[in-house]
Structures are given as structure tokens and as C-alpha cells.
Amino acid sequence: MNIFVDYILIPIIKILFIITFVFVAVLILIWLERRFQGFIQSRLGPNRVGPQGILQSIADALKLLTKEDVVPHQVDKFIFNLSPIIVFVTALVVFAFIPFGTDLTLFGKKISLYLADLNVGLLFIIGFNSIGVFGIILGGWAAKSKYPLLGSLRSASQMISYEVALIMSLVSVLFFTRSLSLVEIVKAQQEMKVWFAFIQPVALFIFFVAGVAESNRLPFDLPEAESELVGGFHTEYSGMKFAFYFVAEFAHILFFSALVTILFFGGWLRPFPNVSWLSFLDYIPPVFWFLGKLAFFVFLFMWMRATWPRYRYDQLEMISWKWLIPLALANIFITGFIVILVK
Amino acid sequence: MRKTYLEHTKEIIMNMGPQHPSTHGVLRIKLWLDGETVVKSEPMIGYLHRGIEKLAEYRTYTQFMPITDRLDYVAAASNNLAWVQAVEKLMEIEVPRRADFIRVIITELMRIANHLVWLGTQANDIGAVTVLLYCFREREEILDIFEMFCGARLTLNAFRIGGLAHDIPVGFKEKVKNFIERFPKYIDDYERLLSENRIWLKRTKNVGIINAEEAINLGLSGPSLRASGVKWDIRKSNPYAVYDELEFDIPTGEVGDVYDRYKVRIEEMRQSIRIIKQALEQMPNGEIRAKVPRIIKPPPGEIYHSIEAPKGELGFYIVSDGSTMPYRVKIRAPSFVNLQALSKMIEGHLVADIVAIIGSIDIVLGEIDR
Q: Does pLDDT of B8 surpass 70?
């Protein structure tokens, strides 16, 4: 009976919970982004469906679900259908490793707020994230149309160059944690009594920039740059398949915000874990700290989108190879040196 | 192995438009691409052809006025001005001064409205979505002023041959004054979002360069020419209406790239404000319409008259046979001529630059296809 509860019932409930969380969060995010952008651009944004238009995303989702599934005749059908699934699944799977907070005790049972704590969790997440790129490349390729092709080629080179910077920025954090498990990374920050953002600001910067590029958002949204490539890689997609891409994009935003929070901003820890007179903040449950920080970074993503123009393809590559990667290498070197000295 | 592979690479031919979010209408550009680099390009036009020049031959001079609105629909009043002034020149009608001042105010407001649409779409093409909304917010106020003046907002049909249909309404002056007092602050806002923005500079500086000589040879006019450093503005070189009595500068660029064209247009908006301010102060009282025969029947002859429209030199060439309808009308549309420079500007640039360059020469397809 206990085995059944521990190994089957609780994980299933957790899986369902995570999937619902991602879906609900994405729906809210879409609404929030439109609403927020409306606020910045001095217009209203969606405000008709439900109070303040909060049901707008649900209405949109229903509309996309009931739409005819158009498959253009020239496409490679198998890959064309497969690629949205790749993107969607990989965007969802990574959430299994995100710790949302400290352990909870419910009905006398200790429940951890993550589905899996792998000792190579971070590597696994980054790896899965890279697989997601295949969905974009293949999707654009299988459409056998010129705009998606350009879009997918752009995304291929963009992802490769930014993934290098992304992983390199992580290495300098791992010097301190000596573990790839996300739970351990947060615990390391608890032990060191400081957020990694303060000891690794350069890595944070590189990671965030690369994260924005990885999730195809302005100012790095070249693969889908709507004013240049119409829709980029998803030009030929419609209905639910398009929705998969769309949801995956927002799931990526959520995921990268979560990752920044965990790696650099102490995950579920309260601000300044070393200052004792701030301990009254501990009364707020850790989950809320985590979600609050997450919301802040999501907000940053949206703010950037509303403010900045878009980089050009060659300039984007230049930033990665000429600035971010050398900077990340220098950061690794210096951090490593200091760590050895301190030891 | 690699060599044989390279031998098999070839350019792809891609159609940009006629349905494309950044070709500003139904422009189609045939692109020969090597990767993302443009090897050759060819603008294809004609998707919005309505035969406006031919229509003119079956309309009286007054009836053709509303059709000129449909040329450059972003700057309708400028088209009206060019048309009425051409006809007045042909008939040798002296327009009352008050009417001329009002015409200047309306067309300069139109210039600001046009440049706002241009700035918004240009920024949107480069990816800065928010500027578009800001620009349209201010354009809305200008359209409100137009609505107050003549009842229409987009296709104004604002003037009449010999003057105006009616005088400015009560409160018009105050409304314009109120707007031009606030507007420079808005321009500063746009500049704060873009002018110093690193991404904006990277996307616009040294992109789509055209030097002064090439620009003149291609027949460019308007801000696109002035950005290359040629100080040529019909309002100064060949003043019409009352522009010779008003004080304003002609902003010019140096390099002739997208950024210079952006800067020139931003500065032109400021100059327009100056012009409107002076025109409001100097506007005399009096008649608003000259004595014009009820049926307009210009003497046989021909005339070419051009004005400085927001996009460049807009000219009407009218051949009259002495009847109530023109024998032939030829329109020199600035967008049409400026579009010629596109192929030269985008050669060797990337796909992303194409949209920036199309935006920077500020075309309206209604005027190109006519």
C-alpha cells in the first residue's frame, strides 16, 4: 500500500499538477503579456472575455482547438506533424526537475515539491532544451516553403551559438555548487548564505541574454521575426499545431525564468538569507518566494519585448561569438582561479 | 567533396510580397538570395493599379479632387494641394492669402501625420512595436483636427480650386496651438526610445547607403534625397503658397543611410511645428475663396506644378483642351520615383535590412500604382 502511494499515486498527482501548472501559467502569461503590452503602449489590450479579459486565452485556445488542421500539400507530412510535438514535449518535460519549494508535510507524509531530483538535472534540462531546437529546425524544413526555411536556418545557428554561451555561463556557478542537481544548487546558496547573483553577476548576465535568445524573444526573436519572415518557422502551421509552438514559446519563458531564479536568485529562499533581522520574511511560504521571483523575470521578458527593436541575424551571431563566449570563458577562468586560491 | 557541394549551391528566388507584413501595401519584391544575402532584386508593382490618371480624363477638374486623396492616402491633403495649385496656375487664379495660410497649416499637419505613420511602421519593421502605437496616438489628434476642419479624417478633399470650401471653424486655432505646444515633447519621447538605442543604431547606421550623386541620378526627392546631403526642398527652392514668408530650416543628412533618413524626418516634424506656429500667428483675416467661375474651364494649354509632399516632389502635369475635363493628367508620384533606388540600396544586404530600407524610403503603394 505504501509503495503504491509513494511510487505511483504521488508521482502521478505531481505530474498532473505540473502539467496543469504549466498550462495555466502559460494561459495566464499570454493574457498578461497582451494586457501588459497594452498598458505600455497606452491601449487597452484584451478586456472583453471575463473580468479584465482573463478568459481571453481560454477562448483563443478553444478557437485554435476547433480550427481545421490545414496541412499544405507540399509538406513532408510525418516530420511536419512530428516537430510541434518535439517542441511541445521538450518544453514540458524540463519542468519535472524544477524544485518549486522546500518539502511539504501533508497527511503525515513528506512531499517534495519537485517530480525528480536527478544528480545531473541541470545537464538533463539543457540537453532536453537543445532537443527542442530540432522541432523548430525540422518544422521549418518540412514545410518546404522559403520563409520557414530561412527561419529554421536562422534558429539553427542562433541556438547553437547561444547554447555555447549559456552552458559556459553555468560552469562558473557549478564551481560553487559542485552538483548538477537543481535542489542542491539552491541548498548551496542556502549554505553560502548568499544568492549566486551577487557572486556571479557576469554569469547571470550571460545566462539571461542567452536565455532570451534561446526562447526566441525580442530582441532576439529572429527565427520568427514577423516583420521579416512573416511567421518564420511556423508560417505554414495553423490551428492546434501552431498552438503547440505558441505554448512552447511561453513555456520556455517560464522555464528560463525558473532557471534564473534557481541558479542565481536562490530559488525558494527569501531575499538576503544571511540577514537575520529579515527573518520575519520566512513566514511567507517558500513557494511564493519562488513564484514571485519567477514572475519578476517573466515581467522582464515582456518589458524587453515592448521596448526594444530586433537585432539583425549577423549582429546576433557577433554578440554571441565575439562578446558572450569570450566573456564566459574569462569568467570561468577568473572564478576558477579565485576558488583555488580560497581553497 | 566540399567543392562539388559548393558547385551545387544556387541562389533561391524569393517573393517578398505582395502579401507581406512589411512591404507597406501590395509591393512585391523579387529577391535573388544567396543564403540571406540579397544578390539581386526587382520591385514589381501594379497590384493596386486603379487607372487614376485615366479616370482624370473623364472627370471635371473639381470631380477629380477626391480621387487625388486616394493617391498617397497617408497624406491626402498634400495631393489636394498639388492638384488645386496646378489647376489654379493653369487658370491664373490668385488665391486669397488667408486661404494660403490655412492650406499651409493643413498640409504641414499632414506632413507630421505622414511622418508619424512612417516612423511607427519603420520602428515596427525593425521590431520596436511600441513606437507604432505611440505614433498613432499622436496622429489621432491630428486626424481630429482634420475632422474639425473638413469633416473627414483620412481622405480629406480639403481644398477647393480658388481657395477653400469654408473658413476654419471656431476653436480650430486653439486646438492646433494646443497640439503643437505638446507635440515636441512627444518627438523627444520617440527619440528617447530610438535615437540612442544601440540596437536601433546597429540596425540603421550604414544600412542602405545611397550617396548624393546616385540619389540625384535616380531622381530621388524629399527626405530620402535630403538624407544624402542634398539641400533641396521645393518649399525653399521654388516656393508655393506662402512658404517664402515663413522661416524654417531644411534638415539634411550626411551619409544617406537609414539612420540619416530617420533623423531627417524627425527633424522635419520639428520644422513643421515651427511653420505651423508662424502661420497661425501671421494668418490674416479676409476672404477664403477667389472669384472662380462656377464651371471650371481652363484655357487650352499645359502646366506642370509640383509641391514638396511629405514623401518628395509631387507634381501634376495637366494638358487642357479648353473643355471641362482635362485632356491628360500625368502624376509625378514621389514614392514611384523613390522606389527606383530600392534595388540599389538593398543589394548585398541581408533580408532583415530589406524591411528597414523599404521602410526608410517611405513608400505608399496607392501613389506608386495609381
A: no
* Cα(B150)–Cα(B168) distance, integer angstroms: 9
The verdict on B201 touching A (C-beta cutoff 8 Å) is: no
pLDDT digits (tens, 9 = 90+) for A211-257: 888 877 777 777 666 667 776 777 778 888 888 888 888 888 888 88
pLDDT at B284 over 80: yes
Domain annotation covers residue A225: yes
Peptide bond into B18 cis (omega under 30): yes
The mean predicted confidence, pLDDT, of chain A is: 82
Mark yes or no for CB contact A307/B12 under 8 Å: no
Residue numbers in B near A230 (CB within 8 A): 20-21
Domains of chain B: 2-369 (1.10.645.10)
Asked if A228 and B352 come within 8 Å (Cβ–Cβ), the reply is yes
Whole-model pTM over 0.90: no
Inform me whether the C-beta atom of residue B199 falls under 8 Å from chain A C-beta atoms: yes
Q: Cβ separation of A42 and B14 shorter than 8 Å?
A: no
> Taking CA A19 as the corner, what is the angle to CA A70 and CA A258, rounded to the nearest 5 degrees?
105
Residue B21 burial class via C-beta count within 10 angstroms: exposed 0-12, middle 13-18, buried 19 and up: middle
pLDDT (mean) for A316-332: 87
What's residue B70's pLDDT?
87
Q: Is B163 helix (H, G, I), strand (E, B) or coil?
A: strand
Q: Among partner residues B21, B134, B193, which is closest to A227 by beta-carbon distance?
A: B21
Nearest C-alpha of chain A: how many angstroms from B83? 35
Query: Is the CB of A228 less than 8 angstroms away from the CB of B137?
Result: no
Residue corresponding to grid cell 506608386: B368
The total number of structural domains that make up chain A:
1
The strand pair at B12-16 and B28-34 is best described as: antiparallel
Distance from CA of A311 to the nearest CA of B (A): 6
- Note whether A41 contacts B130, CB cutoff 8 Å: yes
Q: Looking at the complex, does the CB of residue B124 fall below 8 Å from at least one CB of chain A?
A: yes
Give ipTM to 2 decimals: 0.79
- Judge whether A170 lies within some domain: yes
Q: Is residue A35 part of a domain?
A: no
Distance from C-alpha of B185 to C-alpha of B187, rounded to nearest angstrom: 5
Q: Is residue A30 part of a domain?
A: no
Contacts 24+ apart (CB under 8 A), A113-118: A113/A287, A114/A182, A114/A183, A115/A11, A115/A14, A115/A15, A115/A18, A117/A181, A117/A182, A117/A183, A118/A180, A118/A181
Closest CA to B115 of B308, B306, B350: B308
> Any chain A CB within 8 A of the CB of B182?
no
B200 Cα to chain A: minimum distance (Å): 6
**Does B125 lie at the interface with A, CB-CB under 8 angstroms?**
yes
Confidence category of residue B317, pLDDT binned at 50, 70, 90? very high
Identify which of A41, A310, A314 has the shortest CB distance to residue B127: A310
Helix axis angle, A182-192 to A121-142, nearest 10°:
130
Over residues A75-85, the mean pLDDT reads 86
Assign A87 a pLDDT band (cuts: 50, 70, 90). confident
Domain of residue A80, residue span: 69-342
Find chain A residues with C-beta within 8 A of B197's C-beta.
Answer: 308-309
Averaged pLDDT for residues B151-169: 86
Does residue B3 carry a pLDDT above 70?
no
In angstroms, the separation between the Cα of residue A130 and the nearest Cα of chain B is 24
Give the pLDDT score at B2.
Answer: 46
CB pairs < 8 Å spanning A and B:
81
